[in-house]
Fold:
Amino acid sequence: MTCHDARELFSVLVDEVLGADERGALDAHLETCADCRRELQRFRDTVGLLRAVEPARAPAGFVDRVLEAARPTPWPRRWLRALFLPWPLKLPIEAAAIVLVTVGVVYVFRATPELQRAARLESTKPAVTEAPRAAISEPSSPATPPDRARERQYMEKKIAATPPAARNEAEQRAAGLKDASRDVDKRQDIDKQKEASRPTPRTESQVAGKKVEAPPARAEREAGAAKESARLPAAPAPESRADALQAQRPATGSTAAKSLAPPDVSGGLAVSDRDAALRGLAQLLARLGGVENRRVDGHEGPIIELTIPREAYAEFAGELARLGRWQPTREPAALPAQIRVVLRITR
Amino acid sequence: MEGRIGDDSHLVDRLRQGDPRAFEDLVIAYQHRVFGVALRMLGSRAEAEDLAQEVFVRVHGAIAGFRGDAKLSTWLYTIASRLCLNRLASSDRRMIREGEETLTRLASSHASPAAELERSELEAALHRAIAELPEERRIVVVLRDLEGLSYEEIAAVLELELGTVRSRLHRARMDLREKLERFLP
Structure:
């Protein structure tokens, strides 16, 4: 055994885990080697120093702190800790994330016209969807009976207040309006009969005599109207214009109030070719800066309400006379800046 | 009961049965040994306390799964040793930066200012020498000469071959003998 081999066994010798064979060989070497004996003694002393080290002691209160740490934390506190602690690090990061997301959303919204359009449609949706519903609520009255009734009341009051000489004209007009509203009533009756004779399945309430639209038909119409108004929100079809106007009335309060007032000028326009006259009237309005407010199909022909600037009224009246026989029933001398005119076009 | 382990099997039974006092008894019984290993390995009392606390919290969470085929003490030393080595692996640079200050704090387990002053040069040199050992040798010599574990227990705790334990322990002691030369008679 060499000195190197002998010294490799010092640890197991000190710890007394050396096998009997190795122990014999090591003892034989140590007998003859004074250096290794001295070295072994120094090795034993070193181990002796290590084993004499005072054992470490845990600090005071350690057990309590461990028990506290081992106690399960309630989940809200765990959740809050995970979310906010350490707060000097997490709060700024979370605030920055919120700002970043907000900026991102605004940027994407601004950079995407489709989104903006969708948002606009969303915000105007209630007004648009009300139109067909209102139209459905009175499906057989394209004219506006409440307005007509008001106009008739107004005219009757006016007759009562006018001197006898002027009454004839006013009475004629009131009679005309009564006729017109009677026409509307008649049309409602006809529509009711048509409704009743329609081969759609009847509900119990219909059988009981109450007028109720069959749900599928109503749903179809509603869907159709909604589709129509979604496709052409700004330009309703001519035949549904009066309905749409009436439906939109709640949305435009000032216009509604204005249309409830009696017209500034009213009269009849007898024409030979109604379509040609309507075309001519449209061209005339376009040229003079007038606008057609609404149109109602009366018994004798369409009744048109329009607005024309005062400065263009003289020319408008002159041109009306060319389109047909213009018979004003009301044409006061003092006229407002925007004159509201009601025309009854007859043959 | 403090420091020395009495009947571990009874304590294990109580822990498994969910005896609320059993865990407290376990901490009381092993606190100094676990803290001692952490202190000798990490060199900082604050860090050692933090790590020792983590050892017991882990034991508390895993006690139901403790099979009992190893001694309770071996299990505790295993957790403590692994956590120490993991922490050292992740904080090598910090340890080097702390340098001398850390090593001198090692010397006393009751580190009052007066005790610090009275501490012998030998003690300081001893702890400095241990702290300067490579980690894989340091843990073996700490478990053997400071904690008194057998070769077989150390092999189990560190999951090493018995021959590797012998070899590392011998190298560590030879290093220490060199460093402590001038204190030897």
Summary: Confidence is low (pLDDT under 50) at residues 127-144, 199-217, 222-258 of chain A.
